[in-house]
Design a protein that fits this description.
heterodimer; A: Arc Repressor Mutant, subunit A; 4 helices; B: mainly alpha; 2% strand; globular
Chain lengths: 96, 190
């Protein structure tokens, strides 16, 4: 049994490092949902997704998405650029 | 024996719960319906259980892989998945064996070439095992003239498997890091 708990403790240490590097300790479930949507959309489009895309795919309200994007941008997790095709839209790019 | 039972039960539950969650999202969550292949969550269970529990977790993982398609939603796949599921489970030990052969053995200290406690190393194992899974499962399907409904076993499907396994595993890792915050904090303080 001791070995089982040791293995679980190793797994928790791994998750701790991930949580620390991602800086997601203080995210609410809704903010995490927006964050996951950005990651999933990044697989579809390497040039980044626009905000409307994230609103439609996350199921969250536009204001929640805006607030979360602002938070993610301030923490340098994402970058927001103005779209060249539509000046009213912002393009979201994940920082590597 | 007690350790084997605990890790088998954990692996089985982890794998089957992730499959049920993935299947629910794939069939019921409107904007993600039918796109489940893009984020195959159960690959995380394969990686985590084999890395932390070793080969002993494989039988339980294998049963966990089968329980969904055979008990929860029988007839989901138009062919037997006994061998593809086995290949998927074996993809993780295969990637560990490859890394070991290249001199990167798995350990749990900073001195270990591959450290179980470093998530970047776990991500590397996830990428390689997803590659093995994508190639070998589709090779098996192609050699036996099998395919999913409305899909052709081609390079696009190989890429979809690869992306799906990697993204699915990353989502589960982040979700676990978030959900287990209190436990992680407690473990860190001890």
């Amino acid at each position: 049994m001791k070995e089982f708990y040791k293995n679980i403790s190793d797994a928790l240490s791994m998750l701790d490092g991930l949580e620390q590097d991602l800086n997601i300790r203080h995210f609410s479930p809704n903010e995490l949902k927006v964050f996951y949507t950005i990651i999933i959309r990044a697989a579809h489009n390497e040039h980044g997704s626009n905000i409307t895309d994230i609103v439609e795919n996350s199921g969250m309200s536009r204001s929640t998405v805006y607030k979360t994007l602002k938070k993610l941008s301030l923490e340098k997790i994402i970058n927001l650029h103005q779209s060249e095709e539509d000046g009213r839209e912002s393009i979201i790019v994940l920082n590597s | 024996m007690k350790n084997f039972l605990s890790l088998s039960l954990t692996s089985f539950l982890f794998s089957s719960v992730l499959w049920v969650l993935w299947h629910f999202i794939d069939t019921h969550v409107l904007f993600l319906a039918g796109k489940g292949g893009l984020f195959y969550l159960p690959h995380a269970a394969r990686v985590i259980c084999v890395v932390y529990f070793g080969w002993k977790a494989m039988p339980a993982l294998y049963f966990g892989e089968l329980i969904g398609p055979y008990v929860i939603n029988p007839g989901m796949y138009p062919f037997s998945i006994l061998i593809p599921s086995l290949i998927s489970v074996i993809s993780v030990p295969l990637s560990l064996a490859l890394l070991n052969a290249l001199g990167f053995s798995l350990g749990q200290t900073r001195a270990s070439p591959l450290n179980k406690r470093n998530y970047k190393h776990i991500l590397l194992i996830t990428f390689i095992s997803a590659g093995f899974n994508a190639l070998l499962v589709n090779l098996y399907l192609s050699r036996n003239n099998l395919s999913f409904s409305n899909a052709i076993t081609d390079i696009e499907q190989v890429s979809a498997f690869l992306i799906g396994d990697i993204l699915g595993a990353i989502i589960v890792f982040i979700l676990l890091a978030y959900l287990l915050k209190p436990v992680i904090r407690q473990a860190r303080n001890q």
